[in-house]
Write a structure and sequence with these properties.
Helices cover 81% and strands 0% of the residues. It is globular and about 55 Å long. The mean pLDDT is 80.
């Protein structure tokens, strides 16, 4: 599998990601203006509990299925999928209930049944969507992402036309209905694809025991759990100690800052989908090139965004949200560093060594969490954003150190070579020429 094929696959995913992110951003603007700081804070608090519960409940089971199936190993696939889905759904509901008891806001506790049910549905939705990554082209994954944002946008517009003012509970109910529609789409796809025989099965497939399946799943999920802690400790802490309005400002700054990470999201998804359980030499080569061609340009883009953000934030969200600007600037740089570090970490995940990623996550989380009690209460959102950036920088540094000391491979370079730049420009030029020819033939 050449890097050219990775670029082609991730390019399609990137186009989808850009479209999804743009629509998601529009939805975020609508909800902020419709609900105001307090309503947006309540919605963000409920979504945080739902997202964390469903993510923790995932347990890496979908990715274990993808890895062992991609490696051509034999196991009871239907039984594994059905039992995994049942376990994930029940665990997500239980975790959401616990999260609401932990939270002190009475308005969120009033809607425990809705939020718990939403967490269960979201966990099932995420499990099915993750399974679609077994398709190397990622075509149906892109369909689910596009359909999800369009469903949510349509629901939000209907709510806006039917209710004045719109309450955060109405928005949650609309999103729950959209999640159920997405589950129906995924089930229809899974019926004809998930259990289909491999195109090129190995001549003598190995047997994958339940222990092997669960070991990979929980090793991979350990990484996810630490990642969740590193990317959500700020919001959980602020939800507990701050006001719901402060939480609304900060959560919106975080969500908006993720716009700059769409390239890394597309590239990392394509790398894992292409290489899970396959050739490690090509995996290393593709990941190193992807890192060199994306990290520094995205840091430069973050710098431009930082300069323009004081004007853009007020233009998009209104003067009421101006105070989120400093945290937003820091979180943009954190998003780039974190995304680039995760690109390097795909070298371990796709090669069946998620334990190495778990090690880097554990080492980086300790100093970050240890500093939480010492944060000043004034401008706490900015200090939380700086802690996020510190954690991202530590993860990247540890990942780079793993290459020579554990993998016995050279540390990936920051700068692309002249040949790589010329090759990239040639690929872009060739695709532009092919499109011109295609348009000419169509005419």
């Amino acid at each position: 599998m050449s890097f050219k094929e990775i670029v082609k696959s991730s390019g399609k995913t990137l186009l989808t990601t850009v479209g999804v992110t743009a629509i998601g951003f529009f939805i975020s603007v609508l909800t902020a203006r419709m609900l105001g700081p307090e309503g947006r804070g309540l919605l963000s608090g409920a979504v945080l509990i739902i997202t964390l519960s469903s993510s923790v409940a995932a347990c890496g089971l979908a990715f274990s299925y993808i890895y062992h199936r991609g490696a051509g190993q034999r196991f009871r696939q239907k039984r594994f999928v059905f039992l995994s889905a049942l376990f994930i759904a029940v665990l997500a509901a239980a975790l959401a209930s616990g999260g609401l008891l932990f939270n002190h806001d009475p308005q969120l506790r009033e809607h425990m049944l809705l939020i718990t049910g939403f967490a269960l549905v979201t966990a099932l939705q995420n499990y099915l969507v993750n399974l679609t990554q077994m398709q190397p082209s990622l075509s149906f994954l892109n369909v689910t992402r596009i359909a999800g944002v369009f469903f949510n946008l349509a629901a939000l517009l209907l709510l806006y036309l039917a209710f004045r003012p719109v309450d955060f509970v109405y928005v949650l109910t609309g999103q729950l209905a959209c999640a159920l529609l997405l589950i129906a789409l995924c089930l229809n796809w899974a019926r004809g694809y998930v259990f289909r025989p491999l195109d090129n099965p190995p001549p003598a497939p190995r047997e994958a025991s339940s222990g092997h399946l669960l070991k990979y799943a929980f090793n991979q999920h350990g990484t996810v759990l630490i990642g969740l802690a590193l990317t959500n400790f700020d919001k959980v802490y602020l939800l507990k100690v701050g006001t719901i309005v402060e939480f609304g400002y900060y959560s919106l700054a975080f969500t908006t800052s993720r716009l700059i990470g769409v390239l890394f999201e597309a590239m990392n998804t394509a790398l894992y989908s292409r290489y899970a359980g396959k050739d490690e030499k090509e995996l290393t080569h593709s990941i190193n090139i992807a890192f060199r061609l994306t990290f520094l340009p995205m840091m430069a883009l973050a710098g431009i965004g930082a300069v323009l953000s004081p004007w853009l934030i007020q233009l998009v969200y209104g003067p009421k949200f101006a105070s989120m600007t400093p945290a937003f600037i820091v979180l943009m740089f954190e998003c780039v560093v974190s995304g680039a570090g995760w690109t390097l970490a795909q070298r371990f995940n796709a090669a069946g060594r998620p334990g190495l990623v778990l090690v880097r996550q554990l080492i980086s989380v300790l100093p970050v969490v240890a500093l939480l009690p010492f944060l000043p209460k004034e401008n706490i959102s900015v200090y939380l954003a700086l802690l996020m950036l510190l954690g991202a920088a530590l993860r990247m540094a540890i990942t780079l150190a793993i290459y020579p000391y554990v993998l016995k491979e050279p540390v990936p370079r920051l700068f692309p070579s002249r040949a790589e730049i010329q090759k990239g420009l040639s690929m872009i030029k060739a695709r532009l020429q092919a499109r011109r020819v295609g348009k000419g033939e169509a005419v």
